[in-house]
């Protein structure tokens, strides 16, 4: 019981530290997504959107809102964990955790919760911004929406953690977000339905994991999707389990953390 | 309760780069000891400390902290251990008070208690006035104190310090010596690595010397010093001399016009030296040991290994 309480205290301490870290630099972490997404809504939603017409039977700006929220959640969850965990490695303050009695799983959960909290907070901010541009927006399936929001934040926080484990320089933590995540997100149905693509590109798009995340969230918010929701949810959960196991294995072996 | 704070058995470490850092070290440190672990750069001191603190994974061997096998119950062993690393290992952009409070939290100390403990520890180390400053604004000496504060926040029974006074000015070094002596007197076992051999001689009761990943000496400080064949003495004299006096079997050099350096063999009598100086009309007003006694022996041992 005593040991359990100690672990709980250490976990809360780490989560608190992680949340304080990004709140302390809120101008760098919370404001930019709000500004960027406002620009997307102004340009693609209000100015170009009416000329596009409808997408899957919805106003273009309405169609775009879930995609832009997911885009923000994915990039911020990932960025928070990769930058935070790499920083503690770089500054050697990871030793503070390694010398303490905290188990590896608590260290992992602490960092992931930091990423999840930032991702979800940014998602809420972007949703609030979207209401300025589309005030009549209503969420069709709140339970699915919230579930996918959290599952996505967990999934990409775990990816950020693995990136940070293997990173040896600050370049290494920007390569994946720039050259892998961003293209996949943009081509993953944030701005369009894959039904408008020629067959070959539609089939290729089906191999993009972002498509499943974005469309499941869109199903929750708007009730429209290009993919099978049970399959998409199963895949998200499967990858969360796989990545969690990989992270724990890497921490246990001391890869990137212990010499 | 074990009489040993630390027991290391056949500890080996080979890094991924195939560098063999430890070739099978056996070492025991008694509870309450003030122990020096010495060795030249790259000898294996930091690898040993890293393994004890779980910052480095061992290739083979056993480590026990107060009889707790780290392979069996590392969390419990870690609770008894405090480590002051060689390099600064805190977030420089955080406040001093937050760094220490957070460290307490990582040891499972609830926030209310950790705030109280942090206040006491920072006051004890003269850091309380600087509690709201960002760590990056602290001087090198205060950063070292902060490292010690972090290591002591959970009241460990074994404290390991890896070159704690490196780059610290003499006054602060002396203050830290007094502080370490005080916590050792209160029951904390201390293991110290340092390049200042005078520091080890002043503070430590027992000593181990490690070189090329092997233990080349493990004995008491008194025993080690007693093995010196030659001891250097500095003599202050009343009158001014132009050249060193010539006395058979006592090699004397002139440090300055009123100070003599003399090397005395273990089997020679100091009284003989004084007699002969008196016969030459030289009066000695004071005498002291050269402070580099241990350095001489250290260099000799490392050369042999």
Core attributes:
A: 259 residues, mainly alpha, 2 strands, 78% helix, B: alpha/beta, Rossmann fold, Alpha-Beta Plaits, six-stranded mixed beta sheet, ABC2_TM_bact-type (chain A), transport (chain A)
Describe this structure in words.
Chain A has 259 residues and is mainly α. Chain A has one domain (2-253). Chain A has helices spanning 2-24, 26-29, 31-52, 60-90, 94-98, 104-133, 142-166, 172-186, 199-205, 209-222, 229-253; strands at 54-55, 58-59. In chain A, strands 1-2 form a two-stranded antiparallel ribbon. In chain A, a hairpin with a 2-residue loop joins strand 1 (54-55) and strand 2 (58-59). With 305 residues, chain B is of the alpha/beta class. Chain B has 2 domains: 4-225, Rossmann fold, CATH 3.40.50.300; 229-304, Alpha-Beta Plaits (2-Layer Sandwich), CATH 3.30.70.1560. Helices cover 34% and strands 29% of the residues of chain B. A 6-stranded mixed beta sheet of chain B has the order 6-7-8-3-9-10, with helices on both faces. Chain B has a 4-stranded antiparallel beta sheet with strand order 2-1-4-5.
């Amino acid at each position: 019981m005593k040991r359990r309480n100690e672990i709980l205290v250490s976990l809360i301490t780490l989560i608190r530290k992680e949340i304080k870290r990004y709140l302390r630099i809120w101008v760098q972490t919370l404001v930019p997504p709000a500004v960027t997404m406002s620009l997307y809504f102004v340009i693609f939603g209000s100015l170009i959107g009416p000329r596009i017409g409808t997408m899957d039977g919805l106003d273009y700006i309405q169609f775009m809102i879930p995609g832009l929220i997911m885009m923000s959640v994915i990039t911020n969850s990932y960025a928070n964990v990769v930058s935070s965990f790499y920083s503690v490695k770089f500054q050697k303050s990871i030793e503070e955790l390694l010398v303490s009695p905290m188990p590896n799983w608590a260290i992992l959960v602490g960092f992931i919760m930091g990423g999840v909290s930032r991702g979800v907070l940014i998602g809420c901010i972007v949703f609030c911004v979207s209401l300025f541009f589309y005030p009549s927006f209503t969420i069709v399936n709140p339970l699915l929406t919230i579930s996918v929001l959290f599952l996505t934040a967990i999934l990409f926080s775990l990816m950020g953690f693995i990136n940070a484990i293997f990173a040896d320089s600050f370049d290494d933590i920007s390569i994946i977000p720039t050259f892998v995540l961003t293209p996949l997100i943009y081509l993953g149905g944030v701005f369009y339905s894959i039904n408008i693509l020629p067959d070959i590109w539609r089939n290729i798009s089906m191999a993009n994991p972002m498509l499943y995340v974005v469309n499941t969230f869109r199903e929750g918010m708007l009730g429209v999707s290009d993919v099978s929701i049970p399959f998409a949810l199963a895949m998200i959960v499967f990858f969360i389990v796989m990545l969690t196991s990989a992270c724990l294995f890497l921490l246990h072996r001391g890869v990137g953390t212990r010499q | 309760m074990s009489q040993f704070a630390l027991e290391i058995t056949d500890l080996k470490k080979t890094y991924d780069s195939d560098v063999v850092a430890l070739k099978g070290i056996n070492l025991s440190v008694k509870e309450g000891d003030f122990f020096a672990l010495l060795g030249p750069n790259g000898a294996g001191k930091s690898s040993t400390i890293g393994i004890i603190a779980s910052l480095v994974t061992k290739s083979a061997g056993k480590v026990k902290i107060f009889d707790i096998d780290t392979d069996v119950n590392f969390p419990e062993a870690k609770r008894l251990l405090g480590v002051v690393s060689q390099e600064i290992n805190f977030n420089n952009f955080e406040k001093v008070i937050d760094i220490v409070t957070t460290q307490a939290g990582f040891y499972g100390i609830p926030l209310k208690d950790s705030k109280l403990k942090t206040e006491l520890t920072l006051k004890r180390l003269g850091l309380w006035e600087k509690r709201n400053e960002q760590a990056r604004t602290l001087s090198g000496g205060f950063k070292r104190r902060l490292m010690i504060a972090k290591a002591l926040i959970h009241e460990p029974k074994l404290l390991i310090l890896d070159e704690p006074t490196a780059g610290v000015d003499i006054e602060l070094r002396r203050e830290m010596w007094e502080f370490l002596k005080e916590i050792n007197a209160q029951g904390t076992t201390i293991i110290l690595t340092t390049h200042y051999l005078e520091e080890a001689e002043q503070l430590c009761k027992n000593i181990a010397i490690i070189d090329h990943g092997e233990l080349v000496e493990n004995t008491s400080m008194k025993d080690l010093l007693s093995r010196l064949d030659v001891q250097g003495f500095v003599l202050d004299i009343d009158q001014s001399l132009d050249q060193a006096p010539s006395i058979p079997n006592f090699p004397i050099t002139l440090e300055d016009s009123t100070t003599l350096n003399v090397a005395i063999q273990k089997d020679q009598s100091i009284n003989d030296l004084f007699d002969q100086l008196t016969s030459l009309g030289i009066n000695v007003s004071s005498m002291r040991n050269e402070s580099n006694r241990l350095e001489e022996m250290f260099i000799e041992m490392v050369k042999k290994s």
